[in-house]
Amino acid sequence: MSEPRIVFDNVSRFYGEVLGVNRVNLSIPPGITSLVGPNGSGKTTLMNLMTGLIRPSRGSIRVLGIPPDRPEELFRKMGYCTQVDAFPKGLTGYQFIYSFLLVHGMIESEAAKLTEEAIARVSMTQAADRPVAAYSKGMRQRIKLAQAIAHRPSVLVLDEPLNGLDPMARAETIALFKTWGEEGRHVIVSSHILHEVDRISDQVILLSHGYVVAEGQIQGVRSEVKDQPIQILVRCDKPAVLAARLFEQDNVVEAKVNADGKGLLVRTRDADNLYLLLNRIVLDNHLEVEAVAPADDDVNSVYQYLIAGEGGTT
Amino acid sequence: MTWTQIANQPWMLWRRQVAAILRLELKKTLFSKRAWWIYLLTLGPVFITGMHSLFARGGHHTMGEDQMIFAGIFQVYFLRLGIFFGCLGIFSNLFRAEVLERTLHYYFMAPVRREVLTVSKYLAGVLAAVIYFSGSVALSFLFISAHWGPVFQQYLAHGGGLAQLGWYALTAALACVGYGSVFLLSGIVIRNPLIPAAVVFVWENLNPFLPSLLKKFSIIFYLKSLCPAGDTADGPLAFLASTAEPTPAWLAITGLLIVSALVLAYAAARSRQLEVSYSE
Fold first, then answer.
1. I need a surface site. Which of A66, A111, A181, B148 has the fewest CB within 10 A?
2. What is the rounded CA–CA span in Å between residue A36 and residue B164?
């Protein structure tokens, strides 16, 4: 049985003297994995490595047990939507997908069926017979997505797939990613739209200057960032009372009452202790608590703490 | 590899993949705006021989002289210039043009062996080049003597003219096969294919002046062996030319095909190392 993971074993890639990625060790499980990092951090290099478009200078890669230098096996299971906004000349959207399904070796009826299905999935049926050259950027992005998913791959690699999409198409595309992730496929997404990545990711890989800075489920990654106090938002009826009691604790760094007077943002170095303490304060002071939720265990916050803090930009 | 292993390869799948790639590539290679200068290379001699046919009626020359002129055009223009540079344009661009247009990754993201992709692209190049150049050779051959009317028709039908035409077309096709494999390889291996093209061009044109052994390490030597009319190509420097034993046609054809197949096999093996890097 093939290994259901994408594994990078001490992978480095250099472009001459320039570092692409360095000493990457990853084991990516099924589900949605987001690659997050500033421009030039190595996201596209990592994707090109796992799809075999480039080769590692050192180390080895296995995608579901297949080395990427065997495209004839790999791309039966993998689809890749690159950032490159270029298409073979003179083809309509339908012909673009259909022609490359024939290159897969499919018979014509099967290729036609899968082409129609993929085009429908990205809501491009109306425009399928128009030349790709006449498409808007969003339509080109969607037809590329359709091409990547047309052969029903179990691993999807999507480099900035939300670029150029309008809000409606973006919502539809994100819903598609969620469906694929829930179906047990690997969906590897790079995006600079952090709040959207955050909504869909099962795990994140944070990259900076060619190195993997952190990886895993976002809450786990956040809890590893020890030097930044954790922010917890408490919605309650008497935030000032709560703030006063919390300030008595050493590990509480800051407590800020919300502008609407119905909530308190607490920054603490010991979240577990704070949750225990909160129970006692609530009972002692007869507070009515509406919600308690972490406020900075999202991709954006972790990104800010780990990467933007050292001068990176999205 | 045993015969059983060879028989167990997915030949049907490869056949379908080759057909699909041929369909995409032929469209690009035959009808590309980028190929305008190849159209000129092929249409030039057709136009000139057509003009000759129109304006040479009643001139003081013989049909035999027309045929000798055509032999010269074939050896000097077609073999040494037209087909050489046409193949350079067609075959070195099979991969390079896709890098320039940033579309090569679509092939690399299909579950197709790189060897199958390379052979398919080569076949598309050969088909296009043969259509261009064998077609141009055939039309030029017919046009140059067309004004002789029934005499020429008689020569074609019963005087060996058709066989001669067939040999010219076959030689042109073999030139496409041979030069095609060389330029496909150079397009894969070397970033700037003009450098190996210049080297091959000099080598091929030095051929008449090389010692007889070295002559045999060139494509033009075998092609000239196949030409139906004698060697007319060495011009004013003919006195410098050395002679080599003429090669029998079967050996020239087989040799060219084998050498082309070996070069193609090496190109296919090297294509497995190709990476997609559009930022060069």
1. B148
2. 68
